[in-house]
Hints:
- By secondary structure, this protein is mainly beta.
- The protein has one domain: Pectate Lyase C-like, CATH 2.160.20.120.
- It is built from 2 helices and 10 strands.
- Strands 1-4-7-3-9 form a 5-stranded mixed β-sheet. The protein has a 5-stranded mixed β-sheet with strand order 5-6-2-8-10, with no helix packed on it.
- A hairpin with a 2-residue loop joins strand 5 (about 65-70) and strand 6.
- The chain is globular, with a radius of gyration of 16 Å.
- About 20% of the residues are buried.
Amino acid sequence: xxxxxxxxxxxxxxxxxxxxxxxxxxxxxxxxxxxxxxxxxxxxxxxxxxxxxxxxxxxxxxxxxxxxxxxxxxxxxxxxxxxxxxxxxxxxxxxxxxxxxxxxxxxxxxxxxxxxxxxxxxxxxxxxxxxxxxxxx
Length: 137
């Protein structure tokens, strides 16, 4: 009974955003990035391609909280300030001709660690350690 009361208090105070379960995908037209920074709790795939592509799949009520921007040659994917998320779907698909650096923070993780790209820098920090592989070809 105590757990149920605590959960109601957290949700009642607006502390948690619960995913709707209705997934929606948003496509972005960013080009000419060679670095990627991913924060929060995204599952992501990065693959090499002759063209650039960025798409985010998330619960429709969470998608408006996603922030995808390009600063210089860096693509940044994260969330606007949200007190808490549970349970939600946050997936990023990225294609790029080349990747020089990848920074992963929070609990974000790469979905296909067996696939590797040639990049020179990889950083990971945060609650989940930010998981990405670094296996140069």
